[in-house]
């Protein structure tokens, strides 16, 4: 069947479908523009809380006018940005799409790499091992669908754009949004990109100040254990370094203004690339990262996090108004979710073991510097102190003088398989010893050997780890932090973090807004893996193997499966 006819068939099938948007008179018409908004580190609880605030406009509008899945959570263990975005992009687990973490160790090269790293282009989706919703949209319309993705973080933009879309992210070293040669040949980048980079900062204030009087905030400003970025203290106002300096560009990532310039670029793309204007449906992904950086630096219970959510609420409200006037109400479909949740600053958790707050890694800063010099959003974690201790223990127990653990790139420990084989040692017993030693540390809850993942029984953590195991990328042992602990640099650069298989890190919003959706709040358990198949059905695209069933409140299954006769 040729593609035009396949679409005609799909349209005919869906036109016969009485359940589309629960409107019996509806004929199938895909939204002119589908928008995926991923707010980095936005928890499910905060989405609900903000939607119910009297002052709310954006969250409230989405909550009251959309289809809200109030009980959504990831079902994979490594709650981090790259696996989250790749899961939304592909609709499958990291064990299928291969993006097991933000970074992983590559044995052949002997070092860790960011998930978006590609030797030829610098940044690309080369490591993504599964097809995306965007890829389906691209092929169904023979490349005529416009697909764009923007984020402060490269890993927040690259995966949702798929193999054929265009991705843009922010670079501290060049002080603006960039792309790579994977998307545009050198020198052929769109003119609107440099125009936006030159103009967007001029509209920004000289400091991040409170939106409201201090008494209006529920959270204290001056708290211990916050770790503001360079040049800022833990109290408002947060004055930016002189515009144009590297420090200024760095500080913007830790402020709501970072989201403002990201959203500004999204609108520049909509207008300059004429998204949502012709009969071919387009896809735009906007990933907002300020919530994540602010949560890491000041903690999710900070006045900074609270002010950011007020500003995010406004930004979303303005964006919905913009879509209404530019695309038209009912002509766009928006999905909102997050890449992971968040846990509090460990020291603020009542009863938390003070010995178990952080696993220090003095190499983090070195990796961070490496990142900044290449312009990648790379935060590598290698815990050399743990590796050294583990090696000392194993060498003395086994009476060998070779390192048996090559690296720990959280959450995976990579063993020295070559040495283990050469020395005739048994991997299982080494795993057992390593696991016992790791689990004896207060900041580590579990150490699960990869060999156990085939037989999880009713061990939920084991199941969640199985969903992030990918051959050639995962290590031999998965290290689970204690509830109130996380991996940090030495000295630490972050106050709080996520990344664990605990529910606080896994629960995220999943909601849909726009098109002709009937508002609903649904309590059924869903996962962000439902987003790709649901949008695919709304766009009239075929469902891919391994996908969950599309969410019926948003896009109902066609009930008639009659092929129209071949046209003469
Ligand atoms: Zn984060």
In short:
The protein has 568 residues and is α/β, with parallel strands linked by helices. It has 19 helices and 21 strands. α3 (58-65) packs across α12 and α14 crosses α16 (427-439).
Describe this structure in words.
The protein has 568 residues and is of the alpha/beta class. The chain folds into 2 domains: 3-92 and 130-345 and 504-508 and 518-538, Alkaline Phosphatase, subunit A, CATH 3.40.720; 352-494, Gyrase A, domain 2 (2-Layer Sandwich), CATH 3.30.1360.150. The protein has 19 helices and 21 strands. It has a 9-stranded mixed β-sheet with strand order 9-8-7-12-1-13-20-2-21, with helices on both faces. It has a 4-stranded antiparallel β-sheet with strand order 15-16-18-17, with helices on one face. A hairpin with a 3-residue loop joins strand 5 and strand 6. Helix 3 (58-65) packs across helix 12 and helix 4 (81-90) runs parallel beside helix 7 (154-161). Residues 41, 292, 296, 498 line the site of zinc ion (ZN).
Question: Secondary structure elements and their pairing?
Answer:
Layout: H1 3-15, E1 33-39, H2 44-51, H3 58-65, E2 67-69, H4 81-90, H5 94-97, E3 103-106, E4 111-114, E5 117-118, E6 122-123, H6 133-140, E7 147-151, H7 154-161, E8 166-171, E9 176-178, H8 191-199, E10 207-208, E11 238-239, H9 246-252, H10 256-272, E12 282-288, H11 290-298, H12 303-326, E13 332-337, E14 358-361, H13 364-374, H14 384-398, E15 405-409, E16 412-415, H15 417-422, H16 427-439, E17 444-449, H17 460-466, E18 477-481, E19 486-489, H18 503-506, E20 510-514, E21 520-522, H19 531-538
Parallel strand pairs: 1-12, 1-13, 2-21, 7-8, 7-12, 14-19
Antiparallel strand pairs: 2-20, 3-4, 5-6, 8-9, 10-11, 13-20, 15-16, 16-18, 17-18
Helix pairs in contact: 2-3, 3-12, 4-7, 10-12, 11-12, 14-16
The structure holds zinc ion.
The site of zinc ion (ZN) has 4 residues, from helix 11.
């Amino acid at each position: 069947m040729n593609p035009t006819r396949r679409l005609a068939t799909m349209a005919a099938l869906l036109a016969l479908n009485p359940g589309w948007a629960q409107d019996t008179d509806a004929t199938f018409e895909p939204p002119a523009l589908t928008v995926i908004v991923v707010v980095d580190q936005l928890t499910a609880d905060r989405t609900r809380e903000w939607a119910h605030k009297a002052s709310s406009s954006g969250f409230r509008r989405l909550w009251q006018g959309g289809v809200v899945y109030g009980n959504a959570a990831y079902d994979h263990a490594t709650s981090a940005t790259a696996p989250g975005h790749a899961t939304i992009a592909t609709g499958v687990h990291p064990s299928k799409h291969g993006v097991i973490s933000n970074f992983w160790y590559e044995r052949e090269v002997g070092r860790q790499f960011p998930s978006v790293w590609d030797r030829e282009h610098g940044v690309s989706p080369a490591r993504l091992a599964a097809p995306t919703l965007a890829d389906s949209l691209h092929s169904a319309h023979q490349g005529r669908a416009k697909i764009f993705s923007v984020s402060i973080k490269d890993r927040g933009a690259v995966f949702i754009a798929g193999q054929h879309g265009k991705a843009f992210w922010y670079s501290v070293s060049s002080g603006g949004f960039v792309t790579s040669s994977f998307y545009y040949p050198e020198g052929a980048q769109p003119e609107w990109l440099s125009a936006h980079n030159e103009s967007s900062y001029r509209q920004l204030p000289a400091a991040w100040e409170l939106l409201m009087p201090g008494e209006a905030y529920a959270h204290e400003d001056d708290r211990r254990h916050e770790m503001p970025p360079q040049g800022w203290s833990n109290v408002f106002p947060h004055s930016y370094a002189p515009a144009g300096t590297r420090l200024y560009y760095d500080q913007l990532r830790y402020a709501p203004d970072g989201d403002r310039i990201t959203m500004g670029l999204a609108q520049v793309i909509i207008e300059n690339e004429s998204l949502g204007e012709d009969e071919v449906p387009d896809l735009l992904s906007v990933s907002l990262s300020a919530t994540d950086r602010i949560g890491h630096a000041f903690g999710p219970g900070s006045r900074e996090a609270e002010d950011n959510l007020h500003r995010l609420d406004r930004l979303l409200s303005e964006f919905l108004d913009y879509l209404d006037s530019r695309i038209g109400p009912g002509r766009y479909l928006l999905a909102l979710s997050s890449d992971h949740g968040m846990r509090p600053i460990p020291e603020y958790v009542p009863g938390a073991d003070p010995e178990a707050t952080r696993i220090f890694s003095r190499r983090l800063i070195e990796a961070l510097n490496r990142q900044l010099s290449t312009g990648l959003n790379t935060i590598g974690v290698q815990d050399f102190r743990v590796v050294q201790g583990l090696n000392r223990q194993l060498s003395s127990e086994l009476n060998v003088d070779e390192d048996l653990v090559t690296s720990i790139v959280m959450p995976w420990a990579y063993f020295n398989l070559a040495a283990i084989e050469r020395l005739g040692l048994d991997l299982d017993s080494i795993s057992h010893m390593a696991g016992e030693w790791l689990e004896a540390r207060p900041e580590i809850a579990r150490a699960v050997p990869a060999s156990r993942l085939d037989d999880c029984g009713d061990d939920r953590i084991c199941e969640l780890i199985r969903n992030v195991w990918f051959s050639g990328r995962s290590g031999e042992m998965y290290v689970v932090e204690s509830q109130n602990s996380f991996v940090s640099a030495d000295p630490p650069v972050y106050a709080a973090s996520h990344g664990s298989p605990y529910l606080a890190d896994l629960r995220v919003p999943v909601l849909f807004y726009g098109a002709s959706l009937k508002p609903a709040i649904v309590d059924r358990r869903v996962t962000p893996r439902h987003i790709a198949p649901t949008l695919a059905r709304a766009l009239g695209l075929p469902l891919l193997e391994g996908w969950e069933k599309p969410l019926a409140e948003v896009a109902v299954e066609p009930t008639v499966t009659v092929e129209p006769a071949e046209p003469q």
